[in-house]
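user: can you give me the structure for this one chain? tokens are fine.
assistant: on it. calling the predictor now.
[tool input]
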Amino acid sequence: MRCNPVFVLWAARLVHAAPNLLNRTQAGEFLTDDDSLLVTPPIALLPDENDCPVQCVDYANTDTWTTYSSIDRLRRCNEPVLLQLPETQRLDGPVSPVIRACSDRRTSEDTPSKKQLLPRHNTNNAGFLSGLMSEPACLQAGVEMPETMMLQLDDNGGIQSKDVVAVINLMQRYFADEQNCHERATFSWYNGIVAMTYIGQKLGKLTAESALGALAERIKTNDYAPGRTVAQLCHDGTDAGRVFGVTIDTTEDFEAVQQATELWTKGGCVIDHNIPLVWNLAHVTSWQL
């Protein structure tokens, strides 16, 4: 076990950024030419007018994403999509959750000519920054530790591996955004593939980079991806804050994915007795906080 020096650089960058974040545009003010971030106006992003949600540019500010009232609407989109969903609230429940989404690639409908200046969401105010500074994962990378990730693969899938890898890579980019250092989970969807990544609060976000990268490499070894995949750092007695998990379902089973999320948030491990179990996924590293 050794302390990764990257946490010193990470914390220094965050502290250095603090004055700039606090002095940047406040809620209700408008972007200027110096801000360089342009957001597609709501009229251009009406779900009924576009097949896909806005392009994923600002991974940390979900208020710039497209809002949907139903997951069914995403079936018109043929691009990988990142989703903000309630971790455990059922999509088919009596109250429909608000779904925010952004897509992986720029579409013909999402062109610079349709962009205009909009009010910036107040994610860079003192309260937001204070929240980041109170999160251990926002202040340090953690202590590097080699891990063996438990892996279950259903070999009966018929989806091309490259499509599943695209979903994994999108979730990896979400956690790579420094302003998402406090986030615990993210969902992704693509042509019937639904995936979720969960990371406990006592794990540094580099854990997600290592584990998702290793999983993507494993999936790429075959032309077709498993029908269902469960990958997790979870054993008997594992602290809930140190659980990491990824679940991928190629049959669009959102309920199964959310059930896995609920187990991980409670410190439980996901064991599906209907699919094989593999114990030796190499080169996985966790960062313990």
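assistant: here you go. The first helix runs from residue 6 to 23. Helices lie at 6-23, 126-133, 136-139, 161-176, 206-219, 254-265.
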